[in-house]
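#lab-general

N.A. 3:47 PM
ok so I finally got the sequence cleaned up, no stray characters, all 239 residues accounted for. can someone with queue access submit it? mine expired

B.Y. 3:52 PM
send it over

N.A. 3:53 PM
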Amino acid sequence: MLKGRLVSAGCVLILASVPALANAQAYQCRTPQVSSVPQIAPDGARRDTPVTGYTLALSWSPEFCKPREDSRAHRVQCSGENGRFGFVVHGLWPQSPRGSWPQWCAAQSRLTPAQIREHMCMMPSARLIARQWAKHGSCMTRRPETYLGVTRILWDSLRIPDYDRISREEGLTAGRIRQAFADANGSSWQAFHVGVKLNERGWLQEIRLCYSRRFRPTRCDDARFGARDDVAARIWRGL
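B.Y. 4:20 PM
back already:
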């Protein structure tokens, strides 16, 4: 049984009823072999706080990989040997009141190499998957397959706009990036449900999607909303 105060069986059923759309990852992906689970050391104190919502963070891979094409640690995502990526899942993060979040809870089950490999086209790093389960997923559910399964359902329900085309528009702003996402995903999504994180040079780094405790789109708080609508933005296409 799941931890009822965090992810209820009812919420999982709600997610399971979402129709599967075209996979949000538009580029070819070849899953590598995974023989072991990376060991993850906590980088902070355990914090077991109430969950009031969730954030699905999507990393824009071309920008992430720009300085990492030759990085052995990020070979799957950035070398091109396993395909090319657009958005990938950074993580599904439980949120708590007043901008806090639970983290590094006691894991009840172990992540397996097979579970990692199954989701490598969604999160193309074994270490990233292991870290997200250890830091965030352990505070949501007892089993890593449930955490990854819920993340997969959310991911597969999304439509990603043609950000390659949008990147070529004159006067591109953070508001245009978030509105394009909302427009592509139907009436349940509004621009204020979509956070846009730009790096210090103004390039798109991440989109953060804000959900209620029942996994419905909800207004992002200031911390997750990120760049204001009128802030100039650029999108690296990986060329």
